[in-house]
Amino acid sequence: MTANSVSETLLGLDSLLTEEERRWQTKARTFASDRVSPTIEKDFEDAVFRREFVAELGALGMLGMHLTGYGTAGANATSYGLVCYELEAADTAWRTFVSVQGSLAMSALAYFGSDEQKEQWLGSLASGASIGCFGLTEPSGGSDPAAMLTRATRSGDDWVLNGSKRWIGLGSVADVAIVWAQTDEGVRGFVVPTDTPGFRAVDIESKLSLRASIQCDLFFDDVRLPTSAQLPGARGLSAPFRCLNDARYGIVWGVMGAARDCLDVAIERSKTREAFGKPIGAMQLTQLKLADSFVEYEKGMLLALHLAKLKDAGALTPEQISVGKLNNVREAIRIASTARSILGGDGITGDFPVMRHMNNLESVRTYEGTDEIHTLVLGRALTDHAAFR
Known about the structure:
CATH topology of the largest domain: Butyryl-CoA Dehydrogenase, subunit A, domain 3
Domain Acyl-CoA dehydrogenase/oxidase C-terminal: 235-382
Low-confidence stretches: none
GO biological process, one term: fatty acid beta-oxidation using acyl-CoA dehydrogenase
EC number: 1.3.8.6
Strand content: 5-15%
Mean pLDDT: 96
GO molecular function: fatty-acyl-CoA binding; flavin adenine dinucleotide binding; glutaryl-CoA dehydrogenase activity
Strand order of the largest sheet: 2-3-7-6
CATH architecture of the largest domain: Up-down Bundle
Domain Acyl-CoA oxidase/dehydrogenase middle: 133-223
């Protein structure tokens, strides 16, 4: 692992990590710095998703690393969080990839799939030989999945799937989609190979965020599936929500990586940029900005570590994950914005990563539950009254 930055040294997180956890962090940081960082500004500008990285991440054991069996690593929650942290410090696109592949598609198969489904897909997804996506969000209401319009109906011994999904990561490069649909028996999950007739994925190209990633519209036009395509263990929305909680947990760590990168750039710039005859880092207002940003970064990291310990103990609740996702994304955005102000006009250029992180974090603020949804989750926990409707 490269030498710790000033912000990391001051935080002193290393002393709270095990040797195995630090090993995972080192692997992720090396991959991020050697593979992602050298081209990410151009990849973001040109909207390039580097598929060759997928197998490399698989070889490093980072795909579905929180799972056990079928070639997965069986790593603990802190190790998985640290991988998310280091990947997002390079760019949100690659933490998003690990989340979609591992915490969503692979988790759905691991938790709810049949033995045959697991045997067919989990090994190839873990190695990166295959790519998976997770189709839950719909155009008419991402925050209200209970109102989904995609429907699967019985036709003899088969299922026939019709409808659409939106903002589905990796849809056009995926080999398999985990698709959630209404049935006469409630919401169910289906394993849909993307070469099935009637399945179509269209890239969303007008993005100003997550440009080194892929998000899609999915369309299902009389997609005929065998009975064996249904995830046998998935009943109702609690099934996709369990997967979403895995992904949200990774976000709690990941966004702190983006915050760290912005903070480190601002600290370094404050030492070299001069105004009024001295470095701007010698000015009180700049030091106030840096100190406030560091305190929020430290709090976010300690919150992530606390949630990791709860997760490994089997005691982490959805409400606690909402605290982490709401706080850490919100504070990462504030840290990035403050860093941009320290950089002045240069902060909006591709010479620095800050504006790219700011744009990406706006997407993270929206997906896996908006600020508003997580606020209402906490409000319900605090008052015993649901204010969603």
